[in-house]
Predict the structure.
Amino acid sequence: MPFRDGTGPRGMGRGRGMGRGRGLGMGRRMGSSSGENSTKTATIVIDPEKCTGCGKCVSVCPTGALSLVDGKAKVDQLRCKGCRACVAVCPTGAIT
Ligand code: SF4
Ligand code: SF4
């Protein structure tokens, strides 16, 4: 009598974790086309032709981003937070 011992359950495992396809929280992109503000680029621009070196912008900048270099205002973009206070005080419109 062929007593096969080994024909036992071979596929008992059910639920093979196919992944439930969770389609819900795909995460919306905020509509900004690739690359958010990871790298900050020029927040303000100083026109050296217009700058008279009066230093007003330097004194109003809350972050110390501005300084006078060779009689012209210069901005440290890494410090600038874009408040534009300097733009408001510049008498010559050198900062945009
Ligand atoms: S925009 Fe604001 S933080 Fe930036 S340089 Fe001007 S005053 Fe400073
Ligand atoms: S306020 Fe305007 S003119 Fe005066 S230093 Fe700054 S950028 Fe130059």
